[in-house]
What we know:
This protein is of the alpha+beta class. The protein is 22% helix and 34% strand.
Amino acid sequence: MSFSTDDFARALEQHDYQFQKGQVVRGKVASYESDGVYVDIGGKAAAFLPADEAALSPISNPEEILPIGESFDFLITREQDADGQVTLSLRQLLMKQVWQDLADLMESKQSVQARVNGVNKGGVTVDVRGIRGFIPRSHLVDRDNLDSLVGKALVVSPIEVDADRRKLVLSQRLATQAASLSQLVAGQLITGRIASIKPFGVFVEFEGTTGLLHINQVSKNYVASLESIFSYGQTIKALILEVDDVKKRVSLSTKILENFPGEIIENLAGVMETAEARAEKLNQAAPTSTQVEEQTPSS
Length: 299
């Protein structure tokens, strides 16, 4: 039984290729038009990739990223029309991958670069690999002059990644803190600003991270009130007791700097003025972290 060309054409028309919206297909770049790219995905007609769906950001020449004859994966965004042509997107497929990469970064507590492109009352908006993100003011290192950050690239850590809601929240403070921790060692003298005063101790911000000066590490004498010694925003110097990379904590001490019990309480300014010399003397006598801790008198 013969099978004519017409029979073949009719069979081809009746064939269901099952191209559906949301499906990922493999296609070969076939030709270019002013408004997009034609891609062979094995259908009755070449699929169409609009120019603005060819990359995460606008491109002037699709040939640079989509050479003729090369194969790529594409996402079907519109099912076949009357001519059997489907519409594709590479941008949306790439964006899905970026969202997954950001989720992986959040899970592994790693950082990514973001460029600031706007300011609002609550913080700054940023671009991260073509996705719009937000850094709350409380998660910025420089919180006072947000306008000066526009156009700058910041290293940030994702703290909320929700692809379904298109919500990306990031923290520069946490990313900076993680980088700073790797450079800190026990026995190191730091200069910082008091960020808050709690009944159990004082939190000190320095070099992009925050350390705790516990009330038992303030002086060799009993401290009845931290507010009577320190004030919010005050600059102080302290020695690092311990850096806990797992818990992301830095423990500080000022009582190690005292020449006699209670000196911090009686003459904080004097201890701070000579802190460098005192710290150098202590570190010469105790060059390792273990020895520094052994030099620390008990409360």
